[in-house]
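Posting this for the archive.
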Amino acid sequence: MKKVLLALLVSLGLQTQAQQPAPYFCCDSITYWTDQGQGFNIGLDTSNIVHNPDSIEVWWAVCTNGMCYSGDGMYDYFPQVTTSDTLKVGYDVYLYENGVAEVCSREDWLVFDGTNWVLYNMNTVGINELEFTWEDDGIIYDMVGRKLIEVKVGQMYIRNNKKYIRVK
């Protein structure tokens, strides 16, 4: 009887937990905006988020010319940035709802096009083949690629792209 009662209580407890929906966050609905002007203004855009979390924390990182600057809040300003810089912009957004946290992170490269900060496309657009022209120059190399003046008996060497061993 105790086992049946215990199994019933456990199953009711599991059903109660299963009925509580897990919070649904959507990192892909979060983006940011930039403002052209002196320095670099940036802010979080949550206008497309599906529902309202209990709270939001935002941590910014802006890197340029080998230096990185950090900030926090829904909006931040980086006076060190000039419009001639290429920027690496990143954020970590912490969304809290019902005691559950989700972290949304993003990194982009931006350049100023004369009017606005725009995404700098870092995708590979082409790879060119290297063309080698090989010339038989008669120079002798050891197996590591160092030039040799003389070759000892029993030593391996390379001449004109072929391997040899000196026997006499």
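The chain has a mean pLDDT of 81. Residues 134-168 form one domain.
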